[in-house]
Amino acid sequence: MMYRDFDRWPDRDLEFIVSVLVPEKQHRGEMIKVLRGDAQILDGMLSDERLFDHLMNDTEQVLNISGRLFFTVLLNKARSDLKRHPFTFEQDNRFGVVVFDAAAVLELLDDRATRAYLATVLSSFVRIESRIAFVRIGNGTFRTMRVNDFDIESLIEFSRIVDDEQRVYLWKRIGEVCLFLIGVFSDYVEAQRQLPGAWYRATSKKELAECGIYYYRAASKEAKNLPGELEHALAQMSENFQLATKPLAYISRRYLGYIEHTVFLQ
What is the pLDDT of residues 204-219, one digit of tens each? Predict the structure, then answer.
């Protein structure tokens, strides 16, 4: 997943927002121009809970918008919910644990660039891509290598042989996979040792978190040539990795439920 301008939205997303929140508007093109020119108005509309209610009441609408818009709406809803509750809920094997850290999670979500980055990360796991890379192993000799953007081990291997300017994106992606697994599919972390062909055989969520923190820190140190908002988001992830898993887990548990496995990893 490469960086995209956090403020650049496709027409279909803006049309959806206007159709839900301003259905009586006859000249929607004018409103779309307003949203493109005023980030503050757009942010306010993205936080309107009518968008969330509309999507949850008709999940087929998800097919008509980008994954990034869908997860932005969910993250904004989580942010609103957490303002009313002083704790988050962690799953520890079979037992639930109440953790009074909502204030710290809210501080992270109040950062606009971080919130936009998390939405983009979640949307990147809707569809998984795999590609074949040619790797030089000698003078004029190459071998093929399959790289899957959900396969931590192949990403690590590939990061060791690519150019420096590409390596930071691979390190970033490794961190994102760890963040996603812990936040959204934490059960996988416990079960994957028994599954054939597991993507990454971490012995625990703690080990997976250590992997994510390590590679986010590596990416953050090499992020000076990346766009400013992405550099900032990587720094936030490297410093607040565990906190960043909390809103993802909250969304997965509270909002996605039975549709989780139809939303991700297509």
Answer: 788 899 999 999 999 9
CA distances from 13 to 10, 50, 65, 71, 107 (A): 6, 15, 5, 12, 27
DSSP letter at 84 equals: T
User: Which amino acid is located at 150 in the chain?
Assistant: F
**Three-state DSSP class for 27?**
coil
Which residue has 């809103």 as its token pair? Answer: 247
Mapping DSSP to helix (H, G, I), strand (E, B) and coil, where does residue 94 land?
coil
Q: Which residues of 116-152 are buried (b: 16+ CB within 10 A; e: fewer)?
A: bbbbbbbbbbbeeeeeeeeeeeeeeeeeeeebbbbbb
Half-sphere CA count of 106, side-chain side, radius 13 A:
15
3-state secondary structure of 159: helix
The amino acid sitting at 255 is: Y
